[in-house]
User: Which sequence fits this backbone?
């Protein structure tokens, strides 16, 4: 097997790595943002529930949740390994992203909310038009960290047999006995994915900066 | 509205769990025939039983055998690759119809899944590098050295039961690897002195690494290898056993052994 074939076999797993990430990260963001809004503005009871959610799902290793979802919860129903993996990672990530968004919401001064109410905005309007636009900008740096983590955690779905980068490196390593090369190739691909993503988010962060409010 | 969305999410999750709790009583064989395909799991990182060829396709002793079994069942064959550790759980949870991955009969595994008739019988081997200065004349001699083994295999079980538990081999001297070739790598690097594994793949390993040599082989932990089937599914087991016996009688399996195990 020549080097090109070797690399392209491993690299073709990128489709699954990117696929898992593109499901886990946005679904985690959606759930995380909604939960963070409920946490911060939803009253004491909601805050307690959200705190529990965050504690539980940040306390379970993603791989354990993955096995629970694939082998136990969805026993007998036809949830593919790919979806089971993507959803578990999405759930775990939602707990972390909730904390990121919550932190961002809280770092926008409460006075602004009061001021917005004073000029006649409703509570929902003040959150939507005053707090959120600032919070989004504050959330980007920690969020790019989370994006990197999810990309790398996507390798966990190998345990369910999804032929992503890591599993392909294992398979081709076994058949060719060239392990070092196989795992190094996998490492380089993961690095490029993470590096590209964080650079892209850094550009976004710069673009979104409000000149008067650095 | 956001609360309503949350409620919806919660309901969907609960529904998924409830659906998950229903048990199937029909034979998997009916399901296979209805779908016209059998979903079979394997861990394609264990040459020569199952591995990928240069084009990335699955090949090996088990792969060829299963292909023939599916053909004789009159259904399509759908492969699912999964790490070895996950295969039994996947058959048990109905994600796979069966698994073929050089499985030995094992009492623990038998509690959750069934085994077909044995389709082949294997041996165990101890392998060392040319730098090895000790001697292994009986398998218990391995206790004097640092030993490596693939985690969760029957060889791991044999070492644990016969050497570690009686106190012959210190736990710290036994390294368990996720895969046998990782152990071979450590053997070459001198982190372990002896590697115990299945004789047939060990021979393939030795063929690829001229520095390695087999110092002992015999039937210790292993023996017959079987296909893993869903628990208590008599109809499916009868069908698979019938085909295995047919293939043994025709000499098909011996031909496969010659094709994959001799050099």
Assistant:
């Amino acid at each position: 097997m020549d080097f090109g074939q070797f690399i392209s076999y491993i690299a073709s797993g990128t489709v699954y790595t990117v696929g898992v990430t593109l499901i886990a990260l946005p679904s985690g963001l959606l759930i995380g943002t909604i939960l963070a809004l409920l946490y911060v503005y939803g009253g004491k009871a909601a805050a307690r529930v959200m705190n529990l959610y965050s504690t539980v799902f940040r306390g379970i290793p993603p791989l354990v949740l993955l096995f629970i979802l694939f082998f136990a919860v969805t026993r007998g129903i036809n949830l593919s390994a790919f979806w089971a993996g993507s959803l578990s990672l999405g759930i775990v990530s939602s707990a972390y992203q909730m904390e990121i968004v919550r932190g961002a919401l809280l770092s926008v001064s409460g006075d602004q909310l009061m001021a917005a109410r004073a000029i006649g905005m409703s509570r929902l309007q003040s959150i939507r038009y005053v707090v959120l636009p600032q919070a989004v900008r504050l959330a980007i740096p920690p969020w790019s960290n989370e994006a990197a983590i999810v990309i790398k955690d996507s390798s966990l779905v190998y345990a369910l047999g999804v032929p992503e980068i890591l599993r392909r490196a294992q398979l081709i390593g076994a058949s060719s006995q060239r392990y070092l090369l196989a795992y190094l190739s996998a490492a380089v691909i993961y690095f490029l994915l993470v590096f590209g993503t964080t650079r892209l988010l850094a550009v976004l962060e710069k673009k979104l900066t409000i000149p008067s409010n650095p | 509205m956001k609360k309503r969305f949350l409620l919806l999410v919660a309901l969907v999750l609960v529904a998924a769990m409830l659906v998950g709790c229903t048990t199937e009583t029909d034979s998997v064989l009916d399901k296979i025939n209805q779908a016209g395909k059998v979903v079979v799991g394997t861990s394609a990182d264990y040459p020569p039983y199952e591995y990928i060829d240069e084009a990335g396709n699955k090949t090996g002793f088990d792969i060829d055998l299963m292909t023939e079994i599916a053909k004789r069942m009159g259904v399509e064959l759908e492969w699912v690759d999964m790490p070895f550790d996950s295969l039994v759980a996947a058959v048990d949870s109905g994600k796979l119809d069966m698994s073929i991955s050089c499985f030995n009969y094992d009492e623990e595994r038998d509690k959750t899944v069934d085994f077909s008739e044995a389709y082949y019988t294997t041996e165990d081997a101890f392998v060392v590098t040319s730098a090895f200065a000790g001697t292994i004349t009986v398998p218990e001699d391995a206790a004097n050295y640092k030993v490596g083994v693939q985690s969760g295999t029957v060889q791991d079980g044999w070492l644990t039961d016969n050497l570690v538990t009686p106190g012959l081999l210190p736990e710290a001297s036994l390294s368990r690897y996720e895969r046998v070739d990782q152990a071979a790598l450590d053997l070459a690097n001198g982190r372990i002195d002896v590697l115990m594994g299945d004789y047939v793949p060990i021979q393939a390993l030795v063929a690829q690494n001229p520095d390695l040599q087999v110092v002992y082989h015999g039937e210790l932990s292993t023996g017959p290898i079987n296909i893993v089937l869903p628990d208590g599914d008599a109809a499916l087991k009868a069908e698979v056993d019938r085909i295995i016996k047919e293939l043994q009688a025709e000499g098909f399996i011996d031909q496969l052994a010659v094709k994959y195990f001799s050099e």
Observations:
- Chain A has a mean pLDDT of 92.
